[in-house]
Write a structure and sequence with these properties.
The complex is a heterodimer of chains A (about 500) and B (about 500).
Chain A: H1 5-23, H2 26-54, E1 57-60, E2 71-74, H3 76-103, H4 109-128, H5 132-151, H6 157-187, H7 192-198, H8 206-222, H9 232-238, H10 241-266, H11 269-275, H12 278-298, H13 303-323, H14 327-358, H15 369-372, H16 374-388, H17 394-408, H18 412-438, H19 452-470, H20 473-488
Antiparallel strand pairs in A: 1-2
Helix pairs in contact in A: 1-2, 1-4, 2-3, 2-4, 3-4, 3-10, 3-14, 3-19, 4-5, 4-10, 5-6, 5-10, 6-8, 6-9, 8-10, 9-10, 9-13, 10-13, 10-14, 10-20, 12-13, 12-18, 13-14, 13-18, 14-16, 14-17, 14-19, 14-20, 16-18, 16-19, 17-18, 17-19
Chain B: H1 2-21, H2 26-52, E1 58-65, E2 68-73, H3 76-102, H4 108-126, H5 131-149, H6 155-187, H7 207-217, H8 229-232, H9 238-265, H10 267-273, H11 277-296, H12 300-321, H13 324-355, H14 371-385, H15 392-405, H16 409-435, H17 464-482, H18 485-496
Antiparallel strand pairs in B: 1-2
Helix pairs in contact in B: 1-2, 1-4, 2-3, 3-4, 3-9, 3-13, 3-17, 3-18, 4-5, 4-9, 5-6, 5-9, 6-7, 9-10, 9-12, 9-13, 11-12, 11-16, 12-13, 12-16, 13-14, 13-15, 13-17, 13-18, 14-16, 14-17, 15-16
Classes of the chains: A mainly alpha (about 500), B mainly alpha (about 500).
Chain lengths: ~500, ~500
């Protein structure tokens, strides 16, 4: 059984998805989704534990020996990302029960959970597979289901947002498959480890460089790196609350993982940094993303859109870590994948609680909620402080490594810029906090605290924000090991 | 002894729990506050005993990042700060009981609750065993005091809160945190060590920059131009201004500057590299400018706030002198200014509660109805200026001698000039009180922080609890002239290593 854990990681949610449709009743579908998500969370924990103890796990699908058959390959890097995705997946599935009932029409609820599980299994599949074409297949599974999930939002603009995401996402996926095709032309293999061995022989060919370019643009579209982020703010704003919490914490993280896996593990750090100058291309983009998107976030009046722009800025931090091209910088990136998932998950869930009771997440609609919904706003404050990077929260840990990496390279202006940007984060978080705590509650009707079915998962993530902020030794150690694996390339 | 260190953190937090539980009964709630404060002082006294005997108890609470610990360690400088903060917390609690009731403040439970949290974080700052712990509790202190500053909940309080948190956060995140990570990148550790951790690891040209990152990055030390938050914080109820913005918060700032200078840079290393000369003059400028601005303020609390800005830079200056005498003077001034300034704030609050006056120009003749308060104000003034028979004389003495030893005679002139200035702007208040002619008619209570005018301008005297507190701190100012020994001994231990 335990030998089959890698494949179960994907198969469990994938098979549960169609059953959600057969169940027809919303509650039952939710129960199945929760079970499947919790199961994949447990599997991810077990996988990470085994990888940390035993090293790389290789699983041949259908016993077809790689590189002929498809290989699932789990090392510290993707075991870590699997854990991030499945943790958020489990928390959101618990949360969705109450939230989705309010925000999605009853007949569509089983559809919602089917799409949710497909999206989850797609993301897990991208992460676990050791085969580049398989990456594309799972990418399509996760993307198509994500478009559907976003389109289920209440506002009519959810449809146009989903359509826009579909266009941009399809362009990205097409670029990626073109890149993969060119690699196959040059090497005749789709297995990642195999590619890593064969590619150095054809480094000089322009085809490989073109493939690299296509892949880079495709990934940057999917991970919403400035200026290819335009699909993200609307998609996050108009999707149902649970979907926003899920997508914001997982989809872009997996895209960053793809970038790291392809460009560091497969192409290798010497090619990416030495030949293709990836670091010099990404550095300015990351800095512009961090500063400009934080500024844009400051001026938003919709709290979800505010956090969406903040996400684009935070993706800048992850890419910044990569562009240092050092082990410390990559550690910061890998850590921030996890830390950012925790904080954005908690924040978007808190906004979902507001949506549930107030019916809007416009900043003005949140007036006086500090007293009306103390636990919800408490979660928002802690999550916000984590986003700013206050000590004893996970945000601080990420910032610490990022700045340490900048100073190690001697780039102190970059360090100052990162710190200034975290002040911008303070400003936009504070705008919400001030309205919630200092403005009088306008409505007469009784607005109560959100139900515990929403608050429970929200505070679980808030607690993780604090726990891994106070005791980051373990997460930092895993991130450092992951960074070393990435720098070394897949072959070694 | 490590148990006592943990208790020093835990007791205020547990006390906060009791305060919240007893919210239905104000008497029991205030009793819980007083008992907590008394217990904390007793604990700090025990730690003081051990540290005086040469012990350095240490305890690690957590290890957030590999090699970066949240650790508490008691050493003489931290003990000095903790002693002052915990003792004055008792006095302030007593004072608050009179003030908050006399002033009919709302949300008193929240007030006592966050007060206790603030003190807990002050203990964390005082006993921080490394830069990271210091930074963490420094930030927690900013957050814990925010609800106290914005206690009134008005538009004005909200704006003041924005300035308060904005300045303190920006400076600490942009400069201080950068400094901390830089130190870590250079030295590979952030622990406080006698003699510092930087020597031999760093290019001499970088040291002035690093030291500057800390002096300006510790916004709570209010070195200009990062002092604006302190006058803004005066919107808070007076006990908050008294304990937090004359003692705990601001002293946490200058304490951190002194501690980092001594235990991260090392005073000999600073003196050798000359890293602190430009900062001496930054502090000197703040001393003079703060005094000059204080002159222009008619609002009593605002005047005291600028006086604090000016006086805090004395402590910074003492640290920047980078010699033993300067460090002794610096540490002594943390203590002496605390007792002097808290007395002045207590008096300002008593005047506000009893006579509903908040402006200096309204105080004419009040001394005859409130003699104790104005006499105490006079004693506090003498201590701030540095005149015998008050404790302030000692710290000014050591700072002066330290400046001479550092070869900075220009600074001696700055110290003299500033003493004269502070004498002038503070003495105006008791002089008006005792000798001024009362203006005809009933002056309206000024809107700025004046009391709600429901009991039509009655001179009913300050609450007894508050007068008692004033008497205690004023007496302490005098007692510290005769017996500065405990603080002096602690500071020689700091300077001697």
């Amino acid at each position: 059984m335990s030998a089959h854990l890698p494949v179960l990681q994907v198969v469990v949610p994938l098979l549960a998805a169609p059953f959600c449709l057969f169940l027809r009743r919303g509650r039952a579908a939710w129960g199945l989704a929760v079970l499947a998500s919790l199961a994949s969370w447990v599997i991810a924990l077990a996988l990470l534990r085994r990888v940390l103890a035993e090293g790389v796990l290789s699983y041949a699908i259908g016993d077809w020996v790689p590189p002929i058959g498809i290989e699932y390959r789990v090392d510290v890097v993707n075991a870590w990302v699997l854990l991030i995705v499945s943790t958020i997946g489990a928390a959101v599935s618990l949360y969705a029960g109450t939230s989705v009932e309010r925000e999605v029409e009853a007949p569509r609820i089983p559809l919602f959970y089917a799409a949710y599980l497909l999206c989850l299994s797609g993301l897990l599949g991208i992460t676990i597979t050791g085969d580049v074409f398989n990456v594309f297949v799972f990418l399509e599974i996760s993307s198509l289901s994500a478009y559907a999930l976003i389109a289920l939002g209440q506002a009519r603009r959810a449809l146009t947002s989903a359509f826009r995401y579909l266009i941009m996402g399809s362009v990205g996926a097409t670029f990626i498959v073109i890149g993969i095709g060119l690699l196959y032309v040059m090497t005749g293999t789709l297995n990642m480890a195999d590619l890593a061995q064969l590619l150095p022989g054809v480094w000089d060919s322009n085809t490989v460089k073109v493939a690299y370019g296509f892949l880079a643009v495709g990934f940057c579209l999917k991970l919403a790196l400035f200026p290819l982020h335009l699909w993200l703010p609307n998609a996050y704003t108009y999707a149902p609350s649970a979907v926003t919490a899920f997508m914001a914490s997982t989809a872009t993280k997996v895209a960053v993982y793809m970038l790291l896996r392809f460009f560091l593990s497969i192409f290798g750090a010497p090619f990416s940094f030495g030949v293709m100058a990836l670091d010099r291309v990404l550095l300015p983009l990351a800095l512009v993303a961090i500063v400009s998107m934080s500024l844009v976030a400051v001026f938003q009046v919709n709290a979800k859109r505010l956090l969406a722009y903040s996400s684009v800025a935070q993706i800048g931090y992850m890419i910044l870590g990569l562009s240092f091209a050092t082990a410390t910088g990559l550690t910061a990136t890998v850590l921030h994948l996890f830390n950012h998932a925790l904080m954005k998950g908690a924040l978007f869930m808190a906004l979902g609680c507001v949506m549930y009771r107030v019916g809007s997440v416009h900043i003005n609609a949140m007036a006086g909620l500090g007293r009306r919904m103390p636990w919800t706003m408490g979660a928002f404050v802690v999550g916000g402080l984590s986003l700013v990077g206050v000590p004893l929260t996970v945000g601080f840990v990420s910032k610490w490594y990022l700045i340490l990496a900048a100073l190690e390279r001697g780039w102190w202006p970059v360090a100052v810029l990162v710190l200034l940007a975290s002040l911008l984060a303070l400003v936009y978080v504070w705008r919400v906090v001030e309205v919630a705590y200092f403005r009088e509650f306008p409505g007469e009707e009784e607005t109560r605290e959100a139900p515990w079915t929403l608050l429970g998962p929200t505070w679980a993530l808030v607690a993780l924000n604090l726990y891994f902020g106070i005791d980051a030794a373990r997460t930092a150690d895993i991130a450092r090991r992951a960074a070393e694996v990435l720098m070394a390339g897949i072959g070694s | 002894m490590t148990t006592y260190l943990l208790l020093a953190m835990a007791v205020p937090v547990v006390g906060a729990g009791f305060i919240a539980l007893l919210r239905r009964s104000p008497n029991a709630r205030e009793a819980a506050s007083l008992v907590t404060a008394g217990a904390l002082f007793a604990i700090v006294l025990r730690i003081h005993g051990a540290v005086s005997g040469g012990a350095r108890p240490e305890v690690v609470l957590a290890e957030p990042l590999p090699g970066i610990r949240i650790a508490l360690e008691a050493e003489p400088l931290g003990v000095l700060f903790a002693l002052i903060a915990s003792f004055l917390w008792i006095v302030t609690t007593a004072y608050s009981i009179g003030y908050m009731r006399g002033h009919h403040e709302k949300n008193q439970t929240r007030f006592y609750l966050f007060f206790a949290f603030a003190i807990a974080s002050v203990m964390g700052v005082a006993f921080a065993g490394n830069l990271f712990t210091l930074f963490a509790f420094y930030e927690v202190l900013s957050l814990a005091t925010f609800p106290l500053v914005t206690h009134a909940g008005t538009e004005k309080a909200k704006r003041a809160g924005r300035v308060y948190l904005g300045v303190l956060f920006s400076t600490s995140v942009v400069f201080q945190l950068l400094g901390i990570i830089w130190v870590y990148a250079i030295a590979g550790t952030v622990d406080f060590e006698p003699g510092g951790i930087l020597r031999g690891n760093v290019a001499a040209g970088l040291v002035p920059v690093l030291l500057g990152l800390f002096v300006f990055g510790i916004g709570k030390a209010a070195v200009m131009p990062f002092h604006r938050w302190l006058p803004a914080a005066m919107v808070a109820p007076t006990p908050v201004s008294a304990l937090l913005h004359a003692v705990a918060v601001v002293k946490a700032g200058v304490f951190a500057v002194l501690k980092i200078t001594v235990y991260v840079f090392g005073i000999e290393f600073v003196a050798e590299t000359g890293a602190s000369v430009w900062l001496m003059w930054a502090a000197a400028a703040t001393i003079i400018l703060g005094s000059l601005v204080a002159f222009t303020r008619d609002n009593l609390k605002a005047r005291l706030a600028y006086s604090t800005v000016s006086q805090l830079s004395y402590v910074v200056l003492g640290a920047m002198l980078a010699n033993g005498l300067g460090v002794i003077g610096s540490g002594m001034h943390i203590a002496m200014h605390a007792f002097g300034k808290i007395t002045l704030f207590f008096c300002a609050g008593a005047i506000m509660v009893a006579a509903h006056k908040s402006e200096v120009s309204q105080l004419n003749g009040l001394g005859r109805t409130m003699p104790v308060t104005f006499a105490a104000f006079l004693i506090g003034t003498l201590s701030i200026v540095g005149l015998p028979p008050t404790g302030g004389a000692w710290s000014k003495w050591f700072l002066g001698v330290g400046s001479v030893e550092a070869g900075q005679t220009g600074l001696v002139a700055v110290l003299m000039l500033s003493s004269l200035l502070s004498l002038a702007y503070l003495l105006e208040i008791p002089v008006r009180g005792f000798f001024g002619k009362e203006a005809g008619g009933h002056g309206e209570a000024n809107g700025d922080g004046g009391a709600p005018g429901h009991d039509d301008h009655a001179h009913h005297g300050a609450p007894a609890w508050s007068v008692a507190a004033i008497a205690v701190t004023a007496a302490a100012c005098v007692a510290l002239f005769v017996y500065p020994e405990p603080f002096y001994r602690l500071m020689t231990m700091v300077a001697g290593q």
